[in-house]
Amino acid sequence: MKDFIKTLGTVLDTFGRVSGQGGVFHASDSDRMRYNQQTCAFCVHALSHSVTRGFCRYACLSAGMQTLSSGEPHYQRCWAGLLYVAVAVSPEKDYQGAISSGGFYGEGEEEEIATLVASRLRAVPGIASAQFEQHLSSLRPISTGALRGLGLFLLESTFSGGLNVAAVFQRRHARYEQQRKIAEALVSLRDQEVEPPDVFGDTYRLVAYLHRHDYEGAMQFISGYLARLLLVSQWNLLRLRAHVRVLVAVITSQAVLDGMDWAAASSREMLILSRIEKAQDVESVCYEVAEMVLAHFRASQVEDSRLPLSDKIVQWLQGHYHERATLREAAQAVGASVSAVSHRLPQETGKTFRQLRLALRIAEAKRLLAETDMEISAIAGACGFTDQSHFTRHFRHQINMTPGCFRRMLAVTT
Description:
Layout lengths: L1 H18 L4 E4 L5 E3 L5 H8 L3 H19 L3 E4 L5 E7 L7 E10 L3 H13 L6 H5 L6 E3 L1 H17 L5 H24 L9 H13 L3 H19 L3 H21 L4 H17 L3 H23 L4 H12 L6 H8 L3 H12 L3 H19 L4 H7 L5 H12 L3 H11 L1
Parallel strand pairs: 5-6
Antiparallel strand pairs: 1-2, 1-5, 3-4, 4-5
Helix pairs in contact: 1-6, 7-9, 8-9, 8-10, 9-10, 9-12, 10-11, 10-12, 11-12, 11-14, 13-14, 13-16, 14-15, 16-19, 17-18
């Protein structure tokens, strides 16, 4: 906890120093709070008041929960009608709280916001509105573009500072975007009489997109197709699974026709079907189908390049080393067989798949130890190790010292 508080303070201070804007953290499990020196006087006064502090905390944490769902900053207005942006703090996938930056009003809203704040304060018993109104001059105007840029910088600050893991939020955002596209397709189908999917006709359309390597067209088609399946299956998980099996088979067949090894294509199909069977809700099933389409295009792009097989595997590992990242998954992603990868990697790199994966994990762990104050257990999880003991054992074997010793050594030499 001590290391977390120190890391949090560093992120807040750095964000304030670079952006010039305030940053406030609210913990999810307690009334713990922290803010930087750039926080405006109005917000500081609100945070110090016994009543409005609770309003601020609720606004920040509820917006942070939206970030957990979308994987992106969440923008809205607080209890006082002021604009703010918030991001979740979830270092080990557990919601620790959220950081917000606020005290803004839209361009041209200065008089309107002053009236709004005053009226809302008068509506709350036990608040002396005059004490708040004297701090109104500390509020700042901001454009929509600037607020969006501030939110993106705040999120990036949590990544570089070690409070959040970028890859985790990227996956959340990809899932959110896919669900949003399906929702848009559902709206367009709302007033139509939806018929069961035409297996042959829809298969032909999807194959045409895959054959042309038209990623945008294929993803748009998949969103609409899944929306129809959801309506036809009435959101029944078992029915939806039965429908998407046909879609998965079509993608596998096209991958083979495009040159993917049959064993690799079949293995990839079995992996996706296994994930679909384990999915606990219809949203997860839709996500797995969309991921398979995306994987098909990734494999096609890699196959079209002239990179050696080892470079393709390394590129894939750079985006997946923090996950379980098995040899079979890597082979499927680049369109090669497991045996081909197993034989070629030692020849081209002098390392096995496991050794390459470990090297990337250790490299990222060294960066986090050097550049952040993340707890060692958090670094272990962020880099793909089972636990701190597993991390320490491999780190000691590679570096000849424990992670703690490595961090202390850097502190002495810098």
